[in-house]
Amino acid sequence: MRQGPKRQSGGAAARPVALFVLGVTRSGTSALTRMLSLCGAVLPPGLAGANASNPLGYWEPRASHKINIAILRRHGSEWFDPTLRLQEDGAFDTDETASTIAEIREYLAKLPAAPLVVIKDLHITALSGLWFEAARQAGFDVATVITVRHPQEVAASLAAFNGSSPALATALWLKSNLLAERSTRTLPRVFVEYTNLLDDWRKEVKRISAALPIDLDTQNERAIDEFLKPDLHRQRQRGPVKAPFGTGWVSTVYDALCAAARDESPDQAALDRVYEEYRDNEIGFRTAFEDFRRLRKFNWLVRPSVVTFIYEALAIAHRRRGPWA
Q1: In whole angstroms, how large is the CA radius of gyration of the chain?
Q2: Which of 23, 91, 103, 156 is the most buried (most CB within 10 A)?
Q3: Residue 54 CB-half CA count within 13 A
Q4: Which residues pair with 120 in a beta bridge?
């Protein structure tokens, strides 16, 4: 049976824990979330249903989807946005930050009363600061568990899911993992590699319980064994990590995350360097592409015949001499 909240000094009951599952989509977050719920963590009500891409379910609340999608779209973003636009200074002004946190807090305050609630929504990784603060204001302590999966496996799974190119899938892998790691440095956290979860979930439950620390039980072993079947691991990839951007970013981040999943300290200096390089390059390319779309839109308003007429008029004005001959 699941234990109640631990007691703090003086006999006061500990605050309930909001356990956030973070990571890039298609990295095993759904499997991990369901396993945690079978170990006693309470899921929010009103979950998104299963479909062909995830036949065992996503375990994500529809209400959080509504909140997060609205936030992203106000800022010209989506879950498949590889940019760091939401992490830029001034992306959220003071009033929007306060109102957004209040909206999330109101949702969290209505969750079932329980010592441990597990919350997974693929949008939260990019909005984690808002969600963590809202959870604290709603009376929760915050803890996190971060999934780790080989980047080529994620890319293959995303390609099967929605036809994403390897370049986009890898950019999403980089962005989500960098943000998940950076945003949780001051929080209780644990990293779980997807293959390890499927190979020996009991060991991973012990790691999670010890690292956070939270009370998880494994009395529902049969249900967990039946859920975490080997065929969940449909995309398999091992060996060297490919670098589609001509850099060592992906392998550097993956090595650091794998170390964390072995309970070693990740190389935060290397992760910071990759984050800064990715951010700087992403801003530069985003600006170039946005400028291209602006100029292209303007040029499309002018017919080719009009452009030809302007050139001919200028040639006549210059009496067709020199470069206007």
Answers
A1: 24
A2: 23
A3: 19
A4: 21
Residue 284 burial (10 A CB sphere; 0-12, 13-18, 19+): exposed
Q: Give residue-wise pLDDT tens across range 182-234.
A: 999 999 999 999 999 999 999 999 999 999 989 998 889 999 999 997 765 55
DSSP string spanning 9-24?
Answer: TTSPBPPPEEEEEES-
CB-count exposure of residue 211 (10 Å: 0-12, 13-18, 19+): middle
Burial class (CB in 10 A: 0-12, 13-18, 19+), 87: middle
Taking Cα atoms as reference points, which of 60, 207, 42 lies closest to residue 117?
42
Alpha-carbon distance of 181 to 247, in angstroms, equals 20
Are 26 and 154 in contact, with CB atoms under 8 Å apart? yes
Q: What is the pLDDT of residue 216?
A: 94
What pLDDT is stored for residue 7 in this prediction? Answer: 34
Cis peptide before 61 (omega within 30 of 0): no
In Å, how far from its chain's centre is CA 57? 18
